[in-house]
Design goal:
Blueprint: E1 14-17, E2 29-31, E3 35-38, E4 44-53, E5 61-70, E6 77-82, E7 95-102, E8 116-122, E9 127-130, E10 133-136, E11 148-154, E12 160-170, E13 176-187, E14 192-197, E15 209-217, E16 226-231, E17 234-240, E18 243-252, E19 257-264, E20 270-277, E21 285-288, E22 291-292, E23 297-301, E24 304-311, E25 314-321
Parallel strand pairs: 9-18
Antiparallel strand pairs: 1-6, 2-4, 3-4, 4-7, 5-6, 5-8, 10-11, 11-14, 12-13, 12-15, 16-17, 17-20, 18-19, 19-25, 20-24, 21-22, 21-25, 23-24
Length: 325
């Protein structure tokens, strides 16, 4: 998935002095394409939409993009650094849009710079990415400024916070000419909200269609339980010890069964920790891909029932049954 923003784009780029010890040739990842233009206020804009990583990299990557240029006031070389709109690079060749907006007076030579991977490092801290959003949009621009309108729906049971939607803007030759994004601060379960992407006015007459519309969500914090109110009297909390994508979650009130579809992206098993309130007097039965887990570690502490599961690498269906009030 991928998605973008408005013409009121604020760059978060920062600069670092360049010295001979700075590595600007990262062998593990590289920028595959970029496009440059001048904005109406004469800033230099450099956009890209695709970053590649080595097939040997089993871990997802934290990636930042750099530009090597000269500061016109100090005469020194500097590296301008920007984060892509996706927070983590999971797969090779997935859309990974980024955008630099640079003061042309301070950095007049930046128009000649090519973006490169400034930093690429393994993601080794626990992180949960929620994929329970549905995007509904046309690919063709709809408004006088070539904007795109669409709707986003939270199809899961958990409130989503800080959703960054982004997209790639293409010309009639299917070449990228801009990267856009917008922010949805809060999206409640089953809520639908409208979003809008607006390309830079300097290139709007070239806009032909949008692609790679997607989203990146600021999800649960490390060591914090994410809470699901599954009924008025029943609460489920969960957290992972590895990098997990949640593709779906649902609760069947008739059978007292809670289902996850999750993807453990780490190249080794990760722990799924659960807490159920109120205390469960009947043992909870857990299943992985339809197979019962025989050695579930379950204990009652402070009006909660706690249990831990080991989730193998890859996509798995996790079920919990006997969730009593």
């Amino acid at each position: 998935m991928c998605l973008t923003s408005s013409s009121n784009y604020n760059s978060n780029a920062y600069s670092e002095k360049h010295n001979n010890s700075t590595n600007i040739d990262n062998p593990r990842a590289y920028v595959k394409n970029s496009f440059k233009y001048l904005s109406n206020d004469n800033n230099t804009v450099i956009v890209g939409g695709s970053v590649a990583k080595s097939d040997s990299q089993n871990f997802p990557q934290n990636v930042s993009v750099g530009l090597l240029t000269i500061n016109n006031f100090t005469g020194e070389e500097e590296i301008l650094v920007e984060r892509p709109y996706n927070s983590i690079l999971y797969e090779n060749n997935e859309p990974f849009p980024f955008k630099f907006m640079i003061n042309s007076t301070i950095y007049p030579d930046v128009i000649n710079s090519a973006p490169f991977i400034y930093k690429s490092e393994n993601v080794t801290l626990p992180y949960t990415k929620i994929n329970t959003i549905n995007l509904n949009y046309p690919v063709l621009p709809q408004g006088p400024n070539k904007e795109l309108y669409g709707n986003i729906t939270n199809t899961g049971l958990v409130q989503l916070n800080n959703i960054t939607l982004f997209a790639i803007v293409n010309d009639k030759n299917s070449s990228q000419i801009d990267s856009v994004r917008t922010l949805i601060p809060v999206l409640k379960p089953n809520e639908t909200r409208q979003f809008t992407f607006v390309p830079d006015p300097a290139i709007k007459d070239m806009v032909y269609f949008y692609s790679c519309v997607g989203g990146d969500i600021g999800d649960m914090k490390i060591d914090d339980y994410s809470i699901v109110n599954i009924t008025t009297s029943k609460v489920l909390g969960y957290k992972f010890s590895s990098l997990i994508q949640i593709d779906s979650m649902s609760y069947n009130i008739t059978t007292d069964k809670f289902d996850f579809t999750i993807n453990n992206i780490y190249p080794y098993p990760g722990a799924l920790s659960l807490e159920v309130m109120p205390v469960q007097m009947v043992p909870i039965q857990a299943y992985i891909d339809g197979n019962p887990v025989e050695d579930v570690k379950m204990r009652n502490i402070s009006e909660k029932t706690l249990l831990d599961l080991a989730i193998p690498q890859g996509v798995h269906d996790i079920s919990l049954s006997n969730l009593n009030n």
